[in-house]
Amino acid sequence: MEKGRAKLGAGRIFYALAPLLALAVYFQARRFSFLNFDDPSYVYQNPYVAGGLTWEGVRRAFGMEGVAYWHPLPMLSHMLDVTLFGLDPGLHHLSSALFHAVNAFLLYALLLKLSGSAWKSGFIAAVFAVHPVNADSVAWVSERKSLLCALFFLLALIFYARHAQRPGWRRLLPSLAAAAGSLMAKPIAVVLPALLLLLDFWPLGRLRGYGVPPENPALRGKIPALSLTRLAAEKVPFLILSGASVAATLFSARIFGDVALGERPLPLRLENALVSYAEGYPGLLFWPARLAVFYPYPARVAPWLAAVSALILAAAVVLALLNARKRPWMAVGLFWYLLILAPMSGIKQAGLWPALADRFAYLPQIGLFLVATWAAAGAFYRVPRGRAVSRVLAALLVAALFVMGWRQAGFYRDSETLFSRAVSVTDQNYVAENDLGTAILEKGGPWLALPHFLAALSYNPAYADAENNAGAAFLALDRPADAAPYLARLLARDPKNASALVNLAACRMREGKTAEAQALAGRAFALEPGFAEGYARLAEEWMRLNKPADAVRLYERAIAANPLYFPAYSGLGRIYFSDGRLDKALEIMGRATRAVPQSPEAWLMLGNALAKLERWTDAAAAYRRAVNLAPRLVPARLNLAAAAFYLNLGDEAAENLAAARRLDPQNPRLLEMEEALGIKR
Predict the structure, then answer these.
(1) 558-574 burial, b for 16+ CB within 10 Å, e for fewer?
(2) Which residues contact 168 (CB under 8 A, 6 or more apart)?
């Protein structure tokens, strides 16, 4: 009786423990920024996401309009976050952390339901919650799709286990609905029908004639065994959903032209897939010491390595099949890993495809952890005090993984930190070098960014993003003659690259070749009429030539192309500020806050316009909106403190100065304000 109560208590504790561990690892993300890798197109520069949850956004999410492949649920999730939290990246990160915590809870609930073992199920859920490989899926906002896919995937399995006790089409509907949700988050769930057949074999024990009973003693005698034909027929609705998802994915990929960048030969793709399966992902999971956001695809794979990998996989499959009756967990865990990873194996590629990816392991890892846990338990439980020893070792392992997970999550705090880490732990990582340079360039350091773009090109001379960015960096250094060759070389290979056309147009404007510049710009905007960033980029060049009327015209075209593109409003506002036309600046910033009410920068600039007009009460209200949307935005804190002083709101002023001091203690304007006010630290 006492043993039963202890087991029940452990089961209840794990329901809370796994989610709490997940939140403990990722709560630090409240202080993280958006990344420059996918986050702009998925979230803060996507006009339909940055506008919050709207009917037009819902229509576009479910239509074939947006980015990459069809995945409406993550887009709706991002829109809802914007509606609730604005564009405060920290709260978007916490939303992802919450989804991961829910997934850890569901994983434990599923394993407990299937196996009846609280300790083994709890250990796997705890490892899943804290494992550092999952930082790629949890601490990167754009990877919300992996989290949502896993959430509905696990729900589909839980509902299916309930259906197995009393089979019937009506009881199968919740599982089908969850499967549809998983597919609408990420198409890797197409393998779900095959995985359900695996679970029928073990641990559900539904496959008649194979002599494998349900793993959970509480389910023995309560799950009817059925023929393979009957079980396969049961999966037909799931197969139909998977087929529809494949069709939608291929159709959307054709619309967006989302093919692999630099198509690789099939033999190389097969060799890389073999090595990733046999060595790459097991290495990430069982020795997660040098994780990175991107692993460059190899130029070649040594034939002997591919052969050894194929032998390892073949031996693992044969061993699992030979032990299928005696140790069914071995086959189910192995095939869970192999099946779920298959759509991400890289045999079929799209976009910028890596050799392997931490985020690809989010669901497949469960299979390998299941094999390792059941094998270890079988070994420990045979020796005296083995159970107690195994639980102590399990706790120590989870603690070690917790520390590693916390550290790995911390690398995702901002783009510069993340890609610096990737450069340090990988070789010839042209993507990491390029994105590190981009992060530095966005901070206004072209002389520091340029070496990273050149390094990327030394590793991959045909990498278009690095060529374009090298040209942009030379332009930022006012060296158009050095920028032009990179852009011209890129356009010789890809004459439809609108961004490169705009940058080359900027070069020609710097060289005084206005007619050629306008021709290049015309080609760019004919290719992409909605290229708001391009209009704004050339508007800046007209301002350099002291032609504000032309700049205003292009900024207005940028706003017409994308009414949510805030930099265009910002550029217009700066023009009117510099001309002393404060009424026009106020009008533009008012338009910006109506168009992008979730943008803290829009409210900050509106406050600045109002402050110029000495409308301090209205300015303070605008600054408060900016601070509420982005509590870590130091300029908003400082401007609100200044407005509060003018309004004799000393407590509010002191509170915001203190907040700015915590966020950026060496901020020059903060130091200047403290000196003026006689504040000593």
Answers:
(1) bbebbbbbbbbbbbbbb
(2) none
Q: Is the dihedral of CA 307, 312, 313, 318 positive or negative?
A: positive
Across the range 612-624, mean pLDDT stands at: 93
C-beta of residue 518 within 8 angstroms of C-beta of residue 547: no
Q: For residue 427, give every residue at least 6 positions away whose Cβ sits within 8 Å of its Cβ, in sequence order, or none.
A: 296
Tokens of 14: 């794990």
- Integer Cα distance of 10 and 101 in angstroms: 19
Q: What is the DSSP secondary-structure string of 231-269?
A: HHHHTHHHHHHHHHHHHHHHHHHHHHT--BSSPPPHHHH
DSSP for residue 217: G
**Per DSSP, what are the bridge partners of residue 226?**
207
Query: What are the beta bridge partners of residue 351?
Result: 260
Percentage of the chain surpassing pLDDT 90? 72
What was the pLDDT predicted at 211?
A: 65
Which one, of 634, 632, 625, 583, lies nearest residue 607 by Cα?
A: 625
Taking all residues of the chain, what is their mean pLDDT, rounded to a whole number? 91
Which tens digit of pLDDT belongs to each residue from 448-506? Answer: 999 999 999 999 999 999 999 999 999 999 999 999 999 999 999 999 999 999 999 99
- DSSP of 466-479, one letter per residue? HHHHHHHHHHHTT-
At 59-78, the pLDDT tens digits run 888 886 655 678 899 999 99
319, 328, 316: which is closest to 378 by C-alpha?
Answer: 328
**How far apart, in Å, are the Cα atoms of 430 and each of 295, 348, 351, 458, 539?**
10, 22, 15, 8, 31
pTM of full prediction above 0.85 = yes
